Every structure is written in C-alpha cells, then in structure tokens.
Amino acid sequence: METLKRALRKSSPEKFRLLTDLVETSIDGTRDIFVNRPLNMSQIHYIGFDMDYTLAIYNKHAIEELAFVITLEKLVELKSYPAEIMELTYHDDRIIRGLLIDYQKGNLIKINRFKQVCRVQHGTQDLETSVYFNDKIDQSDPLRFSSVDTLFSLPEAYLYVLLVDLVENKVLNDRSYTQIYEDIRYCIDMTHRDGSLKSDILRDIGKYVYKDPHLSLTLDKLRESDKKLFLLTNSEYYYTDMIMEYLLDTDSLHYSSWRDYFEIVIVNARKPGFFKENTPFYRVDEVTHEETLMDEASFDRKGIYSKGNYIAFEKLIQAKGNEVLYIGDHIFGDVMRSDKDSNWRTVLVVQELEDELSVTAEVREKYQRLRRLSNKWDKLHYELHIFSSQLNTLQNLELSLRELTPAESKALEKTREELEEGIKRCHKEMEKTETKVHNLRQEISSQYHPVWGPLFHDGDEISRFGDQVRDYASLYTSRVSNFFFYPIDRYYKSLRDIMPHDRWLELSN
Fold first, then answer.
1. Are residues 374 and 445 in the same domain?
2. Other CB atoms within 10 A of residue 66 CB
3. On the CB side of 5, how many CA atoms lie within 13 Å of its CA?
4. Closest CA to 268 of 298, 232, 303
C-alpha cells in the first residue's frame, strides 16, 4: 500500500488524495459488504449498475418532499381533490421499506417472513394486529396489496395514509380507500411520464443528489482490475447523461467523459421487463436522443443503447449469466428478476443499512440484556413445568393411597405447599420478566423507528423485507463505493447455513 501511495503521490496527486480519504473512511463497519450466498469475484467478467439509488444516491428528504408536493399538485389538478390538501406536509421519518399498503382497508402493515402481521396503522393511527387475526395476507394480490419496496415509494405511502386520515375526518368522504390509492398511483406515474419530477431535479442536481466522493475511484479500481462495467437503467438518456456527468469525476482520473467508465450504457431498459420480455435493442443518438432499431451483431465501445433484453445482451457481450454481476436497489425490478430469470449474480444496495447498523451498535448491550431476560423466562418456564408435573404426580399418589398415617399426610401436605409455592413464585417471576422483556423490546424497537421498528426484523423474526434481501441478493451493502475496501477478486463466503437442530452442538458446548 505504501508503494502505491508513493507512486500515486507523484503521478496523480488528486487520485492520491481520494485514495487516502477512502482508506481512512474504511474504518467504519457500517460500510461492510454482507454475504447471503458465496460469490467468487474472480469469475465475474461484467459488472452492471443501476443508476437511481445505486450509483446516484438521492438526498432523502429533498427528493421525497419534491415527489410528495408534485403528486399533491396533480391530485388537485387532475383528480379534483380539494385545494386544502396542499397544506399537508411531508415527514421523511414516518414510513420504512418493506411495508404493505392494504388499500381495501386503508391500512399500512408490516409482516414477517411467515406472513404474520406484526404492526398495523389505519391512516396514521395505530391498530391492534388482531384486526388481521383471520385474514390471510397474500402479498401478491394486486387487487388488495401494494408493496412499499423502493425508496421512491416512501412518499407515495405516506401521502396515502394522510389522505386516509382525511377520509376519516370527512374531508374526503366521497372517496374510497381504493380510489385514493389508484389516484395517487396515477399521479405518481404521471410525474415520471411527463418529466416534471426529473426536470426539477435537473434544475438543481446538487440539492437532490448526493455526490459520493469515492464513487469514481471505486469504478476506476474495478476497471483497472479488468472488470468490464455497464450501466443498465430505466431512466431516459437525457436524464442519465446529466446525473452521471455530475456524479463521476473525469479530470482527476483522466477520463474524457463519464461514459468512459462503462463498456456499454443501456437506458430506458424497462426493468423488470428487460429480464422477462424479448424487446429488441435500439441505438440512441447522443445529440438528438433519437432511437433506431439495432441491426448489428455486437455492441460498440462507448455506445448508448435503449430497451433490449438480457438474452440478447448476453449473446452480444459473449458472457454467461453467472459471469455477470448486477448491482441495484430494487428488490423486484433489479435483484429478484435478474437473479431468477437471468442467473446473474446480484448485489442489493440498501441505503438505510448504515443507519440500521449504527442503531444496532448503540443497542447492543440492550440486546444482550434482552437475551438474558429471555433465558431467565425459559428457565422459569421449565421450573414451572417441573413443579406442575410433580404436583400432578403427588395428587395422583394421594388418590391411589387409601389410608395415610398422620405423618404421611403431614409430609404430603408440606410437599404440596412447597410445590404450590414454587408454582406461584414461577408465575410471579415470569410475569415480571415478561413485562421487562416487553418494555425492553419496545425500547429497542423505537430506537430503530418509533412506529415500525427495525427494517430487517420484527421481534425475534426476520421481516418481509429482510427475508427478501436474504432470498434474492447474493450480497448486500449500503453503497457501491464500499467495494473499494475489498480486493476486487475476493471470494465472498457466506456464514454456514444452519438449521435449528444444528444449534444443539453450540448449546452443548
């Protein structure tokens, strides 16, 4: 490393500065890369990137508030909502990813990996989970549930619960919960179709997009290790061009354009359709942005392409699915479809992970205390079982004995009293311990989020979101530049996958 630093200090002072800053940043454990399934990077030849929320990290409050306000304006303009809804204000800390919108009931729910409802809100009001006691949660039912999967969908979900409140307050009593959801979806889609959201972003990119100072150096390191990079985004070229020009350093790293970082750029990819349909590729004119049907048998270096499909892409780059790694933020659009349909290896960028890990570090001692309390409750429960069994045996013994001497009767009575006292003590201690466990769980949960708790868990169970991350992503991390901290050809190994009975060995030790 010191030899590299000396060489860089002489040949490229700017690159030396970036490298030094990045190495110092690597101390932070929240920037780790986590492994669900083994991945040998030496077998990866092509690495692809989504743009939005992957290479381009948006400033959370600014971008979400912008989408929120534009959608309100369109609800008034296009769907005749009362102008007073414009007084609603956005709070970026009310919704988390992984929730489900039940737009038949006007509820927002959090479920675990077993599809059990853990938390419920009707509008912004908390409800007991018992309202779903006999209700099967089929999250794939498009006529009832909508999934809050992306960071783009957070303002949509928050606006929905605010409008549900207005229904209950008789301000929107002429609209159903389902109609409100459909109206919001229509207006959100319109903000993307008519370019109103993107045009506002491009007028002040620095306000809405965070420029990761180490992104350029990370991509440069990947390229220098003979990895071929490609960009695969649903955004149009005009938007992609301006965002990427803002994000990537060209002067200090001696690139003439941001496009020089990538072998291939594919815009307007229409994911997840890119992985499921047979749409042909189109060439994009960099000046006019016009698209013409691609009729050649290979990609041009630095070419700009539109639409397409993964089968044609693999043929044109002459790479098999497991030689391609794709990095994105959308579980369904980027990760699940690319993993299931194309056999590409996948990395999920979870922007919230850094905050989640920071909170976990803060509450580590509380988790340890919770574990001790849970173990105490288990021990008390076992003692209660023993006392109850012994008392039952004693009662059966009394029934079977026809005659007892005074001494025997006295001994039995004393034993019964001791057992009953033990049972009473266990119940009392268990109740006190349950209260402590409940209060401590609430305390820990609220440190992650006051309403919805941790992103990846709920109680002792993995949340729906955590389950999806585990099932569909080979790796997950908080941002692309975290790859700089690891050898490019690293073999990422997962922890040994164990079943509950495997823990017997751990417990026996």
1. yes
2. 22
3. 9
4. 232
Which DSSP string corresponds to 258-315? GGGG-SEEEES--TTHHHHS-PPEEEE-TTT--EEE--SSSPPTTEEEEE--HHHHHH
* Active-site residue identified among 28, 52, 93, 189: 52
Please spell the DSSP secondary structure of 484-502, one letter per residue.
GGS-TT-EE-PPPP--GGG
341 and 228 housed in the same domain: yes
Is the residue at 13 inside a domain?
Answer: no
Retrieve residue 368's tokens.
């340890």
Look at the block and give the residue holding tokens 């997840």.
Answer: 272
Q: For this structure, is 50 an active site residue?
A: yes
Q: What is the pTM of this model?
A: 0.88
Tokens 């800053």, residue located: 21
Q: What is the pLDDT along the chain (509 residues), one digit of tens a residue?
A: 445 455 555 555 555 555 555 555 555 788 999 999 999 999 999 999 999 999 999 999 999 999 999 999 999 999 999 999 999 999 999 999 999 999 999 999 999 999 999 999 999 999 999 999 877 788 888 889 999 999 999 999 999 999 999 999 999 988 999 999 999 999 999 998 899 999 999 999 999 999 999 999 999 999 999 999 999 999 999 999 999 999 998 777 888 899 999 999 999 999 989 998 999 999 999 889 999 998 767 778 778 999 999 999 998 899 988 999 999 998 776 666 666 667 899 999 999 999 999 999 999 999 999 999 999 999 999 999 999 999 999 888 877 776 778 887 888 889 989 999 999 999 999 999 999 999 999 999 999 999 999 999 998 999 999 999 999 899 999 999 999 999 999 999 988 777 777 776 665 55
Residue 362 shares a structural domain with residue 290: no
Kindly compute the dihedral angle of the four CA atoms of residues 365, 371, 376, 382, in this order, to the nearest 10 degrees. -170
Q: Is residue 304 part of a domain?
A: yes
* 114 lies in some domain: yes
- Output the six-digit token pair for 162: 């605010």
CB atoms within 10 A of CB 305: 25
Looking at the fold, whether 69 and 176 belong to one and the same domain comes out as: yes
* Active-site position among 50, 149, 183, 467: 50
352: number of Cβ within 10 Å: 17
Does the annotation count 355 as an active-site position?
no
| Same domain, yes or no: 347 and 362 | no
Instruction: Name the domain count of the chain.
Output: 3
Q: Contact 475/34 with Cβ under 8 angstroms?
A: yes
Determine the structural domain holding residue 410 and report its residue range.
357-454
What's the CATH code of the domain at 312? 3.40.50.1000
Q: Is residue 293 part of a domain?
A: yes
The alpha-carbon radius of gyration of the chain (Å, integer) is 29
Per the document, the length of the chain is 509
Same domain, yes or no: 160 and 224: no
> CA 420, CA 417: separation in Å to the nearest integer?
5
The residue from 161, 194, 227 where one domain ends is 194
Do 387 and 435 reside in the same domain of the chain?
Answer: yes
